[in-house]
Amino acid sequence: MIRELREARGLSMRDLAAKTYVSHSKVQRWENGSRPPNRDEVELIDRALAAGGLLIEMWPEISEGVIGSGHVSDQASHVSDTSSSLATALSQAAASDSEGIFVPRRLDDGTVVLVALDRRALLRAGVGISAAAMAGLPAPAAALVSPTEDPFGFARTASERWPGLRLSRPVPDFGVDWQALLPGGRSMLGSQLTMQVHPARIEGSRVVVSIPDQRRAEEFLARPHRSLVIGAVSAEGVSRFYAIDGRAARGKLSRNGGVYEVTAPAAYELDDLTYGILWAVSNYDDALQADDQALSETRSDLKAYERLSSSAVSREAAPGLNGVAHMWLGSDFCARHILKALPELAEVPAFWTREQRGEEASAWLIFDHKYPYLRETTKALGSTSTRAFCIPEEVVRSSPRYERILLFLAVALMESLGIHAQFTSDAAYETVEGFVVAPDKEAVIANWVRGDGMWHVDVTARASVVREFTIAARDVDADSLTAAPTPAGRLRALAQYLDLPWSWLIQRCGQLSRYGSSGLVQSRSRLVSAAGIDAACAYVASLPANH
Prior knowledge:
Elements: H1 2-8, H2 13-20, H3 24-32, H4 39-48, H5 54-57, H6 59-63, E1 78-79, H7 86-95, E2 100-106, E3 112-118, H8 119-125, H9 131-134, H10 154-161, E4 166-168, E5 178-182, E6 191-203, E7 206-211, H11 214-222, E8 227-235, E9 238-245, H12 246-250, E10 254-256, E11 259-265, H13 272-290, H14 292-301, E12 311-313, H15 323-341, E13 350-352, H16 358-361, H17 363-366, H18 370-381, E14 385-390, H19 393-398, H20 401-416, E15 419-424, E16 435-438, E17 442-447, E18 455-460, H21 463-478, H22 487-497, H23 502-513, H24 531-541
Parallel strand pairs: 1-2, 6-8, 13-14, 14-15
Antiparallel strand pairs: 2-3, 4-5, 5-6, 6-7, 7-11, 8-9, 10-11, 12-18, 13-16, 16-17, 17-18
Helix pairs in contact: 2-3, 13-20, 15-18, 20-22, 20-24, 23-24
């Protein structure tokens, strides 16, 4: 079961080892059953794989080696038809006396494989969760529901556009049309939200969502968890969908004749820009909110490191925190370390950053301290500076479009503050730590991205280290993929490298910047801010669309 969940999350054994602070060989032993994890380890694994407590609940079986390498009891011979609906799969599980059932799954090449599901886990999940989702595997919502259950085609469209998105219909629904699980990432854990979908119409620059059942909508919006109201507009056989944050919609219900309505900007149309923002904010916000008190206490406990000019702190110093909380701690500490060291550097330095994907780069847009940090560094330097990235072509090819958009927006935020972004695709630079270097004189090391621990910081004049960083910075400066004399030129070149349409970026960022992102998705955590997203969109909107 551990292996199946890990693979469903798109993680390698080494990824899981890093998330649970153990060796690669130990993960192998967990999965092949030769040395099942203990209770503490199961809790770490469950959190790392966003299993929602399933592995903890199944720990007795895991510890006995009954579950671990994908083994299901010999009695688990019940095979459902490939077109079996969720209700059918659950009714089969309820009627079965066996310990497990098999659910068929068709791969991209047409091969049908049987996914083993634990019968008790499936039944515990409830009628509203799809069998494939219980296994953590992608399953297009359109394959799980009939057209009558998806009258606006929302589930079919969303599943086709964003395959990592999991949608399921709860039965009974309790006012919820769709339960959604936004995918996690290398550190993100995934995020859950609920949705109501209603017909809508476009009036100028706004979308008007018609809500026939006021009481059902009010009960849905009154709940404290994250929710969305989706407006479906159909014209000439094409459906378009618009998202409104549940809290933003709560105070906007108004009566128009016998129908209640909610209005929102048409800029909130669901596409790769808005989905990417929803994905990143929801993941970061939920994870930080979940560990809020523990994170605050841990930050206080680690304050002693601020007195040191050099430190490397393991994640084991904060074992109870999730991966996003570790990211925030590392990012916050590195930002303060750099700001403290900057005044002592002999000349305007060059910066090097390790972010490669939207998941990492979106921290610049969302973590509450990142945008202020960029402004403070610019103010402290009193002039423009450079910031280099290493993003190999393979990373670009393997990143979904919405993640590439987030990376682009993070760089646009930097350019808006006079920071000249530079890029290399040479994978030889991937292992270079984050640094700030006064060429040939002194370097500040500040790394929290893809490191072995929460952070590694130092201030050094050691010749070999300073030379390495100086050469790296000069190499990228001399041969940047995005070299251009203006911010617009550099960002246009970046958009081309990331395979993003320039005119569309300017148009969509312009639409979104007029209204801000808070009505699309609102944060709950005090450590998350929309200021960076809104500033980046506003800056992109100001750029010329033509050459």
